[in-house]
Design brief:
single chain, about 260 residues, about 30% helix, Thioesterase, TEII, Thioesterase domain-containing protein
Length: about 260
């Protein structure tokens, strides 16, 4: 079972570096590396939906045709939704499950997304309020100089994807919140109910906006992937869990992996 992971604004694939050891042997975590960070740091960052899809198609090879799951955290949640929606609209096989974490639904008002063009000092303050700045980070320091431009462009991408959101998915959707998240708590994440016509499930985990750094989220995703495997009858094992920078394609969708509580 492939689990494709889209990171939050400003992040590369390191957010998922420790996940393999927390998954079972049949789940393979596949982090998505966007341009402008990590090994692709010299490449132009994408700030729009069309550019995002063009980058995914241009830089990454397809995967075997087996059921798969998309997980996106914060900005990554909008990417996961947008990718699944585009696949459905194109008549391509959709993911067996889409999981969005710490990501307000497309129709929610998100102060952080609207902060992309603020002066540095105001953007930094907004990021601090969201818990997105490492503790004891000095103003004007290395972190600010290296991360702020990436975060600005990622916030622009998030805004573009929100504006382009044009309807619900038809696949099962799992919305995950952190119990201490000031941006996308349980009530906010419940709004994703309107963004799928398929089964919808909510889960709340310990932590703030970056609860993906704790052990609870990978355990939840491991269980969700195993449910998908049981429901789809997937016989092929992904082998020992591992991560590597590649991207989604469109394996076969078979069945609904979560109980409908709409």
């Amino acid at each position: 079972m492939r689990l494709y992971c889209f990171p939050h604004a400003g992040a590369g694939t390191s957010a998922f570096a420790r996940w393999p050891e927390q998954f079972g042997p049949k789940v393979e975590a596949v982090p998505v590396l966007l341009p402008g960070r990590d090994a692709r740091r010299r490449e132009t960052r994408v700030t729009g939906r069309r550019a995002l899809f063009a980058d995914l198609l241009r830089h990454h090879k397809p995967v075997p045709s087996i059921p798969y799951v998309l997980y996106g955290h914060s900005l990554g949640g909008m990417i996961a939704y947008s990718v699944a929606r585009a696949l459905e609209q194109a008549g391509r096989p959709a993911p067996a499950l889409v999981v969005v974490g710490a990501c307000p639904p497309p129709d929610a008002r998100v102060r952080l997304v609207q902060a992309a063009d603020l002066p540095d000092c105001q953007l930094m303050e907004t990021l601090r309020e969201a818990g997105a700045v490492p503790p004891d980070t000095p103003r004007g320091g290395v972190w600010q100089r290296s991360a702020l431009k990436v975060i600005r462009d990622d916030l622009r991408l998030a805004q573009s994807l929100r504006e382009a959101a044009d309807g619900p998915l038809s696949v099962p959707l799992l919305a995950v919140s952190g119990d201490l998240d000031p941006l996308a708590g349980r009530e906010v994440m419940a709004g994703w109910r309107d963004w799928t016509t398929g089964p919808f499930v909510e889960r709340t985990l310990p932590g703030d906006h970056f609860f993906l750094r704790g052990p609870a989220l990978p355990r939840l995703l491991d269980r969700a992937c195993r449910v998908v495997q049981r429901r789809t009858g997937t016989a092929e094992s992904a082998g020992a869990a591992r991560t590597h920078p590649t991207v989604w394609t469109a394996p076969q969708l078979e069945d609904s992996p979560v109980k409908d509580n709409k």
